[in-house]
Amino acid sequence: MCYILENNRMLKALHDQIESNPNSLQQISYKTSVVDINQDVDVRDSQATTIKLKIVNLEDIEQREKTIQTRLLIGCDGYKSIVRSKSTLPYFAAELDQMGIVGTLEVEPFNSDNGIAFQRFVSDQLVIALLPLDECHSSLVLSVPKQSVQDWMKLSDQEFVSRLNNELIREPKIQSPLDKLASTFNVRQLYGNTQIRSPPTIRSVAAGSRAAFPLGFGTTIPFMVGTIQAKVPLLQALVNKDKRVNTAIIGDAAHRVHPLAGQGLNLGLGDAMVNQMDIAKKLIVSFANSR
Question: Are 42 and 49 in contact (CB under 8 A)?
Answer without folding.
Answer: yes
